[in-house]
Structures are given as structure tokens and as C-alpha cells.
Amino acid sequence: MVKATKAEKKIAYDTKLCQLIDEYTQILVVAADNVGSTQLQNIRKGLRGDSVVLMGKNTMMKRSVRIHSENTGNTAILNLLPLLQGNVGLIFTKGDLKEVSEEVAKYKVGAPARVGLVAPIDVVVQPGNTGLDPSQTSFFQVLNIPTKINKGTVEIITPVELIKQGDKVGSSEAALLAKLGIRPFSYGLVVQSVYDNGSVFSPEVLDLTEDQLVEKFASGISMVTSLALAISYPTLAAAPHMFINAYKNALAIAVATEYTFPQAEKVKEFLKDPSKFAVAAVAVSADAGGGGGAQAAAKVEEKKEESDEEDYEGGFGLFDEE
């Protein structure tokens, strides 16, 4: 069988990538640092059905994306180009983006701390019996780890932060973790960015719930409304508030002057005769409570009669003559 030349491989790769871009509108850009071929094969099997994993050199992926944009006029796909940095791959999917992202995260594999690797997390060695014989104490002494000999084995006394996140793993740390049988790191495909119909956003967006989206949307509307009211710029959100404020201003002018309009007549009538406020309140109470309103009116009348009697009795002085 004749092997394909480099030029033929590039053409085949361009064709495959362009076909995937035509078929799928959702793409996850994933980092593939320290991911082995077996692990990647398992991920492909797990996503089989509605997703396709495509790896390749960044230069080849960028070239294929540009070719597709030129041939189809799809300029939105060019938003992928800035994301193709480092050791990354593409997952084309028709499924739910959050579910696919969660499925990818399942395929993480534990890995030992190799010399020269940058630690993705803090590595803390917990206290306890190590199972090592006393001749191995030199490793602990070099790393300033407090130990004691207990029943013929080395025991760590207190928790020790062996490696900090972002630091490179040294030879002593790697040797000690290997002796203790600790595989502190885990690697897998990590979603870095999400492409959806031309839009690019962070994977954290996939974790937002509907309640959080509603809350953020309401907060945005509130800010737009406040800004529109402050600069007197009409918007759909600010229009109800503007109408109410305009009505209040017109009502204030009508109350202060002889100018009037139908909506102001009732207010001016109330202001001329404040007792109508009390009558209106009793009427509302009667409508709301049914019989309770009549009882309230009866109590008011009863209190009035008692007041009249007190006034009548109070009309006689202590020294008045009969």
C-alpha cells in the first residue's frame, strides 16, 4: 500500500475539517496537555454518536479554517483562529454543550509527578505511616518534612505542602511521591472555549442555571432603565417610568394652578374636601371585607354616640346649680 504524501495528507485534513464545520455549528476548544493516545481513544468512544474529536497542528487547523471561510464566505468561523493556541483540539458536537463538557471531564487519568512538570494543583502530603524503613529518612530531611520512627517505619507527623500550584516538580519531590505511591495529578481534555454559531464564550457560561440567567437579565434591564432615566433617553424599559413621572409633573401643575385635565379632577376634588378620603377608605374596606365593612361603620357610629354622651355629661360643672 502506497503511503500518502504530506501534501495529500494536508488536503485530506482540510477536506475533513471543512466537512465538520459545514455539518456542526457547535465546537468545544479543548486543551490536551499530558493526554495520552489511549486516553484520547476512550474519550472518542465515549462521545461517539453526536460528537467528533479532531486533533492536529495549530497551523493546519488555522489553514483549514481560512480555506473554509474563503470558499463559503463564512466569516464567523474566523473567530476560532485566536483560540487555536497551545496544545489544543476541537470537539464538534450536535448535543447539549453542558452534557458534552461533563462527559469529557469524566475521562481524567491520575498521573505521577514527573520532574520538570508544572504542578496544576497544590500537593499536600498528609500525616501518617509511610511504610518506609528508617533508612529512607534522608528524603524527608532534604524536604524538611518532620518525621518519627514508629514500629520500625517512618511516620510523617504533620501535613506538609510539598509542591505549590504553578511550581515545577523537583527531583526530590518526584522521588518521594513515587516512594509513597502518590499520583497527585490528573490529566484529561479541558474545555477552554466554546464556539456556537459564530459566538465564542467561556465554558463557565455552561454552568449558569435558568434562575441565574433571569437574575442577570433583570439586573441588566435595571441598569439600562436607570441610565435611560438619568439622561432622559427613551427606551422600552424606561418608558413606563417616564410616563408615570410625566403624569406626576402634570398633576402637580394642575393642583397648583387652575389648569386641569380629566385624570386630575378626582385628585383636586379630594384635596378640596379631605373628609372624602375617610369615606373612600370606609368604602374600600366594605368592598374588601363584605360584612366586616358594615361592622366597622357601626363601631364608628357607636363611638361617635359615646363621644356625644360624654360631651353632654361633661356640660354640667361640679358647682352648677340645678
TrEMBL record:
Gene3D superfamilies associated with the record: 3.30.70.1730, 3.90.105.20
Any single GO BP term: response to zinc ion
Pfam families with a match to the protein in the record: Ribosomal_60s, Ribosomal_L10, RL10P_insert
Keyword check for Acetylation: no
Coiled coil, from the record: none
Chain residue ranges for the region called Disordered: 288-322
Domain Large ribosomal subunit protein uL10-like insertion: 113-182
Gene Ontology CC, one term: cytosolic large ribosomal subunit
InterPro entries with a match to the protein in the record: Ribosomal_protein_uL10, Ribosomal_uL10, Ribosomal_uL10-like_insert, Ribosomal_uL10-like_insert_sf, Ribosomal_uL10-like_sf, uL10_eukaryotes
Known role: Ribosomal protein P0 is the functional equivalent of E.coli protein L10.
Family listed: Belongs to the universal ribosomal protein uL10 family.
Protein name: 60S acidic ribosomal protein P0
Source organism per UniProt: Arabidopsis lyrata subsp. lyrata (Lyre-leaved rock-cress)
